Amino acid sequence: MLVFSSSRGSEGGNFNLYAMSASGSNVTRLTNHSGYDTRPEWSPDGARIVFSSSRDGNLEIYSMNADGSDQTNLTNHGGAGYNVHPTWSHDGSKIAFESNRDENSEIYVKDSDGSNQTNITANAKNDEKPSRSPTTGKIAFYSTRSGSSDIWTMDADGSGETNITNYLYGDNEPSWSPDGSKLVFQSYRDGYTGLWSMNADGSSVTRIYIGGALEPNWGPSS
To answer: Is 76 part of any domain?
Structure first.
């Protein structure tokens, strides 16, 4: 099954979430709201989907059952700012996400039921787009704390922060391989908006696509 965001069937141009078979058949609408529902991600067991939604005015993190039932606001921030880019832990017990509720973008973690929220970066610079390793629980993200946008990794509790690209030009949007050994990311190095891959420690950086490629996501069967 695939889950995706689409403006199909919407008079106002808002985006809702849909599921369909990998063949493209059996398209089913899962959400129906006037806001924008985006960035869906399956839980490891396929039972629930986490996503961002603007249905309450500002962007919040929601989860729901795979059939669209039990849609639950997990962040309930209610103030200014956004909560985006949710990603499950490898065991499905926690969700990491990005929020600028403290003025700059930070990475937060909370239990999958919305409890026990913790800011695990708490840095003066922007820390964005968390991606969880499917095997180790490590979190990859990108940050401007070194002066340019670089890929960083850290342990699930925010310890062990490591800059693994440290390149002059923007590296961002990291995504883990299914076995947790590699990362794919978007970069402006070499003057192109291309896709690159590397080992989880930042070694063996390899360009895999040149030009016009954004927001890579490494699928579970790759």
So the answer is: yes
